[in-house]
Fold:
Amino acid sequence: MVLTQKLHEAFKGTVERITSPRTVSAFKEKGVLSVSEFVLAGDNLVSKCPTWSWESGEPSKRKPYLPVDKQFLITRNVPCLRRAASVEEEYEAGGGEVQLDNEDDDGWLATHGKPKETKSDEDDNLPSMDTLEISKRSTIQSIPTYFGGEEEEDIPDMAEFEDSDNVLENDPAIFQPLVAQEPDDDNILRTRTYDVSITYDKYYQTPRVWLTGYDESRGLLQPELVLEDVSQDHARKTVTIEDHPHLPGKHASVHPCRHGAVMKKIIDVLMSRGVEPEVDKYLFLFLKFVASVIPTIEYDYTMDFDLGSSSN
Amino acid sequence: MGEEKGAILQFAPFQSHVDEGFWHRLSSLKLNKLGIDDSPIPITGYYAPCSHAQLSNHLSLLSESLLAESSELATLQPSASNRNKCSVPGTLHNTNTLEAYLNIDKQSLLSSEAKKIWDDIHSGKAVEDSTVLSRFLVISFADLKRWSFYYWFAFPALVLEPAATLINIKPALQWLSSVEAESLSTACNEWRNSSSTADVPFFLVNIASDSSARIRHLKDWETCQGHGDKLLYGFYDPCHFPNNPGWPLRNFLALISTRWNVERVQFLCYRENRGFADMSLSLVGEADISVPPGWKDNRHVPNAVGWEFSMGKKGSKCVNLSKAMDPLRLAVSAA
Structure:
């Protein structure tokens, strides 16, 4: 970890310990959330998008200012059918995106940019050759770098053991999709999956998104490889790899330092169109914005309300 | 759609997933509490109905699958029912050495786990608490010097002999009338949204002559009989394949044929899209079962299968977490 990042973490941790959590709403003024507003918005997300649920996480990591059973939000086994980098190539060809922050070049994208919409129906069945190349390369990398690295020789290869000796199963009622569907067929896209979680960041007073990636056989992806599924504008700047506040291990996270400012801009845009944003919809707006950072991870943030497009 | 009449009904195997947190907790349990005690440990697995047309769900082990050191017992699992985490009872056999791991008598472990399922079917316990039908077991060896974990799952399934034959299987939307499909979707969403039923993975569907659908508990089987209503045997299907039911149906069929003597079964593979009932992804199938001779006698335990395939063949999986767990490496990466 870079020294400055470590220093900042230490500073942030100290501030979080000695300050009390926000109780007064500053949602419209600053784009931030109080703890109770986070719980309110989370409850609304869970009820509208039931693939999301509240969890309590590691008992030792519980935050006293959040309810025990509502420490963070998570949605598991979310498909990511192709790498963000390849989508961007097509996307730029189609006209590019709208930046909210041209003056200081933060690279945050407008929520109305449409990376999800641009990847039309064909992505299900007709992966482009670029996508295949990228996904192949990354699968090959992931095994030696994460699962053992230089100590590889020490780890016995399970294939040598032939430990299926005392398992004699020959049952015609078993459907074998892996054997049947993947006979060296290069047209099958290796689907990655993600567990996406949202925690409350007390320092920045905003939600924070965490990504845990898995390869096509549900093996853990090295967090660095997760960057391939992050929009390249953000991959090196705003997505960092840190300890998860409620789960064990290192996970990739969209750094929340600009979340408040971006949310404030989104809220201002809505208000200028005559839409009064409600605080319990915060996470829908937030996830819509996060979709510009991770355009190919298909988590659910179904919109069932007017986003302010009426003036169009 | 569907398969040729008389074909053997084939079930898509359950797939396992182990969260990193599970290995962290197992390691600390092993170091701080268990020592060399290698007796079987009760664990809880979690699964949910398939919720994406191209992706099956897994049976997952998370850190809360293992009860941690006793002080945490009281505060553990405060959210009793979580619709995305339907709990399934399992058993972990964690050995002390790689040799012991490789020499485990897998066949007899599987048989003894299958016998528990069989006994629960005969005693009626499986009707009261249907989660026992999906009972599973895991063998593992935790190499804490190298932070490597070897493991293999088994999802025991009682083998019907002769095998069930498939009459037809198709999307529920094609099998039901549009009024029935709408009523069933509403009923399923209510079942999944109620905290008392959200994680009950096996159920009965009653469709009355006026096309209205109701979902009932297995223990209400008797009251569903004799009205001339359609009766479907429903289960949360973790698999996404368009022509095959998922693994949990296997032991459910064993229950249906032994306990209720049903020979032609209409089943509902319940699947969702974005967390809501989806009748075009859900399947309705029809199958014939002939109750195997001897099944009435609970002393006769049927054969069982269920060791997991990984990448198309049977064998252990191994994960190395030295990067996340080895104190030396953590110190180096933090410096």
